[in-house]
Write a structure and sequence with these properties.
Blueprint (H helix, E strand, L loop, with lengths): L2 H11 L10 E4 L12 H7 L4 E11 L6 E5 L12 H19 L8 E7 L4 H13 L7 E2 L15 E4 L4 H9 L6 E2 L3 E2 L11 H10 L2 H4 L8 E7 L16 H16 L3 E5 L21 H14 L3 E4 L2 H15 L4
Parallel strand pairs: 1-2, 1-11, 2-4, 4-6, 8-9, 9-10, 10-11
Antiparallel strand pairs: 2-3, 5-7
């Protein structure tokens, strides 16, 4: 077996490793708000591959027909004007996925990590998402359900890999209800430890930023739970709005969290690293704002160097450019 084939085989057998080395842009809230910002998905796809795309999902029931549909929405109470997941995401990525399947460059897969943030755990919504993913299963990276949940089966890589968050209600539909030997169509995130009860807000913020990685994440990855989702407040106390200058101690904290996650078998995500002023705002959340691009960029650089798998931001092009520079340095003949 050639060295390249050995590498491809090792990557395919890894718990949740794409063939692309290193971190990727996680396009935060990559969908329209109230009909605005409808270009977000196209902008994220144009930023380069691999890329993670976050889609917030809600369940809309048409009062005239009583029929429900999956919509991408920032609100748990959609109006019905929101686009469906099928039309907004799957229809737009179809040319990319079909071309990738024809070319069959498996070492490049997954091209897209599709990240679901459910605005509700309505059983009808969860079951509809499972059924929709079944329609697109030939596009999706899947793994066999094992009898022992602690036994991780290799992922059969495809152009899209789907992840969701830590809800046990979701785990029931997407994992528990799948028969042993059936294919897992998406993968959940780890349960992080909660802060001790009775803490003040300030004490809680201190605990989050100082608890050891092992305290925050005591468990190893399972066949279903394969990634770890984190607020930036576990790196810098109080999160983005309270961040000062990026320090060596901050960098060491970030690296400790990343290294622990990887030792436990998880991918790791941090959200959401933005730096913008009022004139640059395109519907972004102020709670995730460091206040200026010059303050976000050192954090992006540190996250890339530390090996953070999903770096969430609303500034897709700016981070994509940093990742492209990283890729050029690592793979000059790309």
């Amino acid at each position: 077996m050639t060295a390249l084939a050995l590498l491809a085989a090792a990557l395919a057998a890894a718990p949740l490793s794409p063939a692309h080395p290193g971190p990727m842009l996680d396009a935060h809230n990559c969908y329209p708000y109230d009909g605005q910002w409808s270009d977000r998905l196209r902008r994220a796809l144009d930023a380069g591959f691999p890329v993670s795309i976050e889609q917030d999902l809600a369940w809309y029931v048409d009062p005239a027909t009583g029929k429900g549909r999956i919509v991408v929405s920032h609100s748990a109470d959609p109006t019905g004007a929101e686009p469906t997941l099928d039309a907004y995401f799957f229809d737009q990525v179809r040319p990319i996925v079909e071309k990738a399947l024809r070319q069959n460059h498996r070492a490049d897969w997954p091209l897209i990590v599709l990240h679901f943030d459910f605005k509700s755990n309505d059983p009808a919504l969860l079951k509809a998402v499972w059924a929709l993913l079944g329609r697109y299963q030939p596009w999706l990276a899947t793994a066999a359900k094992t009898a022992d949940p602690d036994q991780l089966s290799p992922i059969d890589l495809k152009p899209i890999l789907v992840v969701t968050e830590d809800s046990d209600a979701q785990a029931k539909v997407f994992y528990d209800d799948v028969p042993v030997g059936g294919r897992l169509r998406l993968f959940g995130s780890a349960h992080s430890s909660e802060a001790p009860t009775g803490l003040s807000e300030a004490q809680r913020a201190h605990w989050e930023a100082t608890a050891s990685p092992g305290q925050l994440l005591p468990s190893r990855a399972t066949n279903y739970r394969r990634w770890w989702n984190n607020s930036w407040s576990v790196v810098e106390q109080g999160g983005q709005r309270n961040a000062g200058a990026w320090t060596k101690a901050d960098d060491q904290r970030l690296r400790a969290l990343v290294d622990h996650a990887h030792r436990q078998g998880y991918w790791i995500r941090f959200y959401t690293l933005d730096g913008f002023d009022a004139a640059e705002d395109k519907g972004w959340d102020p709670s995730y704002n460091f206040g200026a691009l010059g303050k976000a960029e050192p954090r992006w650089k540190a996250a890339i160097a530390a090996g953070v798998d999903f770096i969430a931001t609303d500034q897709y092009e700016a981070l994509g450019h940093k990742l492209d520079q990283r890729d050029t340095a690592l793979r000059p003949n790309r």
